[in-house]
Design goal:
With 291 residues, the chain is an alpha/beta fold. It has a single domain, classed as Metal-dependent hydrolases (TIM Barrel), CATH 3.20.20.140. It is 42% helix and 15% strand. The protein is built from 11 helices and 8 strands. Strands 1-2-3-4-5-6-7-8 form an 8-stranded parallel sheet. The longest helix is centred in the middle third of the chain and has 18 residues. It is globular.
Amino acid sequence: MVASLGNVSTLPVPPEPLDTPVFDSHCHLDIMVGERKASSGDPVALAAQAAEASVARILDEARAVGVARLVTVGYDLRSSQWGAAVAAEHPDVYAAAAIHPNEAHAATDEVLAEIEALAGRPQVRAVGETGLDYFRDWARREDQHASFRAHIEIAKRTGKALVIHDRDAHDDVLAVLRDQGAPDVVVFHSFSGDAEMAKQCAEAGYFMSFSGPVTYKNAGYLRAAAQVAPAELILVETDAPYLPPVPHRGKPNAPYLIPLTLRCLAEAKSMPVDDLASAIAANGERAFGSW
């Protein structure tokens, strides 16, 4: 699936800079800088580590193309702790803390208490990524549902945004949010639904964050979803080092590639790029607070 990812030379060239600054609503800095070692068979993460990136370098490269800030997102206790510490050191970084649904078996009462304590920190602006993943099913669905509900309550108690991982589980994710009662701010990370789901999210006031796949040739359903998603509910992300946009599929992703995804979204919505960028910047402040 991914080839020739062994060194820095494989990293994509920077795109044309944006005139209106935006931010990356979801990436994994810990994997990009090699803090979390990639598992075998994970060539994208291995390549990102081979680049020997630093947080400062990642931010500098992003700023150079108009991506002024980013949110680094946790998926277990260690990554959540690391992200909170990095966000405390870098004013242009926010953090999110949570246990990923694939790790739901690790969401014990003690661990969730640690996540809630992290979510209470000022630099941690979201509880995520949490949700349901029926594609991999690495954790029992009962455990995923229990963990998801617990994270929803943490988001409500701490007043932070809820960042959702939803893979092949659209109906159940929406049902849990209805049943449990959603927090004030909900963000669907790497939105993967169709236009009908986008309408349901819009009616509920949920943010939809689009990533690299919206640029893929076979992802017309995502562009259709973007068409119907209100501009005031759209965010843009990388999920770096994963999900790079066209024309860089098969290479490590990074926040500096956001302009490619944003321009695709603007085209799908028949909006000027600057107008959509301005909307996304404002949406980021509504979702995560002022920087």
